[in-house]
Write a structure and sequence with these properties.
This protein has about 270 residues and is of the alpha/beta class. The protein has a single domain, classed as Nitrilase/N-carbamoyl-D-aminoacid amidohydrolase, CATH 3.60.110. Helix content is about 25%, strand content about 30%. It has seven helices and 15 strands. It has a six-stranded mixed β-sheet. A six-stranded mixed β-sheet has the order 7-8-9-10-13-14, with helices on one face. Helix 6 links the parallel strand 9 and strand 10. The model has no long low-confidence stretch (mean pLDDT about 95).
Length: about 270
């Protein structure tokens, strides 16, 4: 299987329509890949909280239309990162979009864990409530979907594993000042779930927040298959999804999980 992660530079002086067109062209250039991945909120910037409402769009909005065309033209599965979705009653969601090679919208995932500690994303967006996986027909593999800040919550990744995920796709807008956490956490999630992890971040600056870059593909042992640098880059990696089952058979740690432990009493 071949995956291409597009670590696009979110330039503050680049109009959204220009970046949307540029991203679509980059997707089309990956026509030999099976799966292409874009980062989180690359149209507006993951830290541009004050602009979220102005750039919100429905699931059939301009970003979806452009990405659908690009996926069809390239003949690839396209995880188009995430957009600010305007949903029911005007609520805003950080929503990931997965397109089939036909251009059809195959699956969506609304980000469960919102970042901000009582400000920013957590104040302006509504949390998703569903664990989402997606079965691809060719190659025959199951993706688990998560986004950026979800990375800090291992419970979600255990649930994705239980739901059959063999590859976890994680678009992000991760800040450079916490890049060490990024590198540590993506590797931990791969090791504990024994899945491939495809983590695609952005380059550039979002609302004055420098982005970490360093998109990475990790195997089920947590070893780096391919890793980007800090700037705009297309990271392409070839790997064998069958290694997930092989790893779990060779080192069957998941079967030793102890579930149903009692909830600890509240602290005095």
């Amino acid at each position: 299987m071949r995956a291409s992660l597009i670590q696009i530079d979110v330039k503050p002086d680049e109009p959204v329509e220009s970046r949307r067109s540029r991203a679509a062209d980059l997707v089309r250039e990956q026509s030999g890949a099976d799966l292409v991945v874009l980062p989180e909120l690359w149209t507006v910037g993951a830290f541009a909280f004050e602009e979220f409402a102005a750039h919100a769009e429905p699931l059939d909005g301009p970003t979806s239309a452009a990405m659908s065309d690009a996926a069809r033209d390239a003949g690839v599965w396209l995880h188009a990162g995430s957009v600010v979705e305007r949903g029911e009653g005007g609520a805003l969601y950080n929503t990931a979009l997965l397109f089939a090679p036909s251009g059809a919208l195959h699956r969506t995932y609304r980000k469960i864990h919102r970042f901000g500690f009582d400000r920013g994303e957590v104040k302006v967006m509504t949390a998703g409530k569903e664990i989402v996986t997606a079965r691809l027909e060719s190659p025959d593999v199951t993706l688990g979907l998560a986004t950026c800040y979800d990375l800090r919550f291992p419970e979600q990744f255990r649930l994705l594993t239980d739901a059959g995920a063999e590859i976890i796709v994680l678009p992000a807008g991760w800040p450079a000042r916490r890049r060490a956490h990024w590198s540590l956490l993506v590797r931990a999630r791969a090791v504990e779930t024994q899945t491939y992890v495809l983590a695609c971040g952005t380059a550039g600056t979002h609302a004055g927040v420098e982005q970490a870059g360093y998109s990475v593909v990790l195997d089920p042992w947590g070893e780096v298959v391919a890793e980007a640098g800090a700037g705009e880059q297309v990271l392409t990696a070839d790997f064998d999804p069958a290694r997930v089952a092989e790893t779990r058979e060779q080192f069957p740690v998941l079967r030793d999980r102890v579930l149903g432990l009692p909830t600890p009493p509240p602290r005095a």
